[in-house]
Backbone:
């Protein structure tokens, strides 16, 4: 215990003078991180200066005084200056109350009762293999199966002969060698505890244990050496259980640029390769919740569902299943730009990066819509596919650059954020900033190409195919429902507010049909199964005797020859 106290005192003297450190608190004899007590354990807590003061010191000293920078310098200093102890530094857990430190914690279980010696070998094998991994680092475990111990062998027959109660022997060992709480008393304005314990010099030698005395039934004092023997042995310093099995915990961390999910997959791979039959592993604390949440299939479908929702809204707006592809196809480009920015900054794809991906789907679609919407109107006015695309590019280049640069510059404060939560802001800012750069550069050049190709595909490939007509009639009811729920209420609301209901005619193109229904008043055209919408009243006709139904803003006519 005295050696442990000297070690933690040495650590305090080394860390306290460092820049950015406010105070160091040391505790010898126990470890909160590993949840263990022992004479060879120690714990120290390092409190930092405020953000403002550390920012000023960073400018003066030219050092990185963030929590990550200070942690790296402290770890390097202690590895060099404290050879008498193994020092591991952990930051607080990402979610307060879920775990005792950052990183991950995995439990190795002895399910076949192979013994604590074999359990230690398996733990050491996992740690040894992890040193060659490029995803995890600093794995550590306090489990030892052969720690030096003293065993007090009580001779119960001798106790009975000498009239000594075994309970009195155990109480004597506890009070003198351990401690015993007596009571409390008030003095100097506070409450003090009374704890009975032998002085240090009288309990630092195993031979002195035999000199302790206990009272027998006749009232005589009997030395403990007369009823017990002290011998040295080896054994575990503590035996943990997890799921009712003997278990040992391994703590570790992921390397920079590696997400917690990748670290979990790597540790599971290592355990499957190393652990012998009868041994198993389990996750605990926040890692257990992360693994359990990953089993929910809906968590893995958030990003695909976001893309599908954008596609359906665009399909309702353009009344076409093919034209929204010209908008959606630019989304992979922005994701590529975002991933490039994360890789350049050596970051990882965490929850904040994934939130940025979902945001980029809408931002990328917004830029593409500026071109596709105008090109669509020019195409309906009679221009060729090529001319409509070129005019849309000329007229929409300035709005695209203006809105994109405004958003890119708006997220710059996230990139340069400091203070509490700066890591989260920078992660989200890097993903969105780099993604918007990618979508601006790629979108300007590729969106017109996508529109041109999709229009050509509609005209040349889908319009005359027999299966496309069947597909159009099958998918037409869901499209009508989505259009009625999203597009038409927006148009009605715009009309109520005094704005133009719909600035251009709405057109629903059904692949495989003979034509397109017109919505301009009384215009009529040949179209089988046609549907039209203008916000007020529309009509569609077909050759032959017709049967018409008028449902207010939406009217349909169907005819048979």
Residues:
């Amino acid at each position: 215990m005295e050696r442990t106290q000297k070690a933690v005192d040495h650590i305090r003297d080394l860390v306290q003078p460092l820049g950015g450190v406010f105070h160091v608190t040391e505790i010898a004899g126990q470890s909160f991180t590993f949840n263990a007590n022992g004479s060879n354990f120690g714990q120290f807590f390092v409190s930092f200066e405020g953000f403002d003061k550390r920012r000023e010191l960073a400018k003066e000293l030219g050092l990185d005084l963030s929590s990550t920078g200070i942690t790296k310098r402290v770890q390097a200093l202690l590895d060099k200056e404290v050879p008498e102890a193994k020092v591991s530094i952990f930051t607080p857990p990402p979610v307060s109350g879920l775990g005792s430190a950052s990183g991950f914690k995995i439990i190795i279980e002895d399910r076949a009762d192979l013994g604590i010696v074999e359990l230690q070998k398996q733990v050491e094998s996992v740690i040894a293999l992890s040193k060659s991994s490029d995803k995890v680092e600093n794995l550590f475990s306090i489990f030892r199966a052969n720690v030096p111990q003293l065993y007090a062998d009580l001779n119960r027959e001798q106790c009975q002969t000498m009239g000594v109660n075994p309970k009195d022997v155990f109480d004597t060992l506890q009070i003198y060698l351990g401690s015993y709480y007596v009571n409390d008393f008030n003095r100097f304005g506070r409450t003090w505890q009374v704890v009975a314990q032998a002085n240090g010099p009288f309990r630092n030698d195993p031979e002195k244990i035999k000199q302790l005395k206990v009272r027998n039934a006749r009232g005589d004092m009997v030395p403990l050496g007369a009823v017990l023997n002290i011998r040295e042995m080896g054994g575990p310093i503590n035996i943990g259980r997890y799921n009712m099995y003997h278990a040992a915990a391994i703590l570790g961390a992921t390397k920079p640029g590696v997400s917690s999910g990748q670290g979990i997959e790597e540790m599971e791979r290592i355990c499957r390769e190393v652990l012998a039959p009868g041994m198993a592993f389990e996750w605990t604390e926040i890692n257990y919740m992360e693994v359990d949440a990953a089993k929910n299939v809906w968590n893995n479908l958030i990003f695909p569902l976001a893309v599908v929702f954008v596609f359906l809204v665009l399909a309702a707006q353009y009344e076409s299943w093919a034209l929204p592809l010209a908008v959606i196809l630019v989304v992979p480009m922005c994701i590529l730009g975002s991933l490039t920015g994360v890789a350049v900054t050596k970051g990882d794809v965490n929850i904040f990066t994934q939130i940025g991906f979902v945001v980029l789907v809408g931002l990328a679609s917004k830029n593409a819509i500026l071109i596709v919407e105008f090109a669509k109107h020019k195409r309906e006015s009679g221009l060729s596919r090529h001319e409509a695309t070129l005019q849309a590019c000329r007229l929409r280049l300035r709005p695209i650059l203006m809105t994109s640069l405004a958003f890119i510059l708006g997220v710059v404060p996230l990139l340069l954020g400091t203070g509490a939560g700066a890591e989260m802001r920078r992660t989200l800012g890097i993903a969105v900033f780099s993604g918007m750069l990618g979508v601006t550069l790629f979108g300007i050049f590729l969106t017109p190409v996508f529109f041109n190709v999709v229009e050509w595909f509609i005209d040349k490939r889908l319009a005359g195919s027999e299966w496309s007509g069947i597909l159009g009639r099958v998918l037409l009811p869901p499209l009508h429902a989505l259009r009625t729920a999203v597009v038409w209420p927006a148009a009605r609301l715009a009309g109520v507010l005094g704005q133009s209901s719909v600035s251009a005619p709405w057109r629903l193109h059904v692949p495989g049909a003979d034509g397109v229904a017109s919505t301009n008043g009384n215009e009529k055209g040949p179209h089988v199964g046609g549907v039209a919408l203008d916000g007020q009243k529309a009509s569609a006709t077909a050759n032959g005797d017709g049967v018409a139904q008028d449902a207010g803003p939406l009217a349909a006519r169907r005819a048979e020859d």
